[in-house]
Amino acid sequence: MILSDQQILAEMERGTIVIEPYERSCLGTNSYDVHLGRYLATYRDAVLDARKHNKIDVFEIPAEGFVLQPGILYLGVTEEYTETHAHVPFLEGKSSVGRLGIDIHATAGKGDIGFCNTWTLEISVSMPVRIYHGMPVGQLIYFTVEGEVENLYNSKPNAKYNQRTVKPVESMMWKNEF
Ligand SMILES: O=c1ccn([C@H]2C[C@H](O)[C@@H](COP(=O)(O)OP(=O)(O)OP(=O)(O)O)O2)c(=O)[nH]1
């Protein structure tokens, strides 16, 4: 089940959902709108290697915006830092963003119970499009979970994306042994 606006508010009161910064106007009927953070990043190498630590270059989005180009993977980040202690958060795109040909994640935007961080966005575009820091970029929805949780994400020693950041985080796939 997906949490309603009232339930999201109730969970925020309890402290099981944290969204910072939070604005009432960003709360939808059953979702919360999140915004594009200040930083973008691109990979240094033209060919990525899933076994290696692929390094990124991080840059600030200028006040006049930045034109994203097709064929390039950009990593972005949400302005919002979130904590979700008892529900499964999902990051979804917004229709208005999709209608500009912007994808904000490359695969499922599922989060884990216990995820406490900003969200990294894996951004690609269908045609050149100028984007701006602070624009609405996605929405968080919250699912209830069935059963007890043994491993909360923020207490898993091998969780890769636990370190609090305001910048996008590159793939840490290299930490997997395969
Ligand atoms: O588009 C997304 C999707 C998820 N996350 C966050 C929330 C999630 O809790 C965390 C880890 O995601 P996932 O479990 O899918 O990544 P993984 O590659 O399996 O990493 P880990 O081994 O740390 O679970 O990353 C993002 O920042 N952006």
UniProtKB/TrEMBL annotation:
InterPro entries: dCTP_deaminase (IPR011962), dUTPase-like_sf (IPR036157), dUTPase_trimeric (IPR033704). Keywords: Hydrolase, Nucleotide metabolism. This is dCTP deaminase. CDD domains: trimeric_dUTPase. Pfam families: DCD. One of its GO terms (molecular function) is dCTP deaminase activity. Its EC number is 3.5.4.13. The keyword Hydrolase applies.
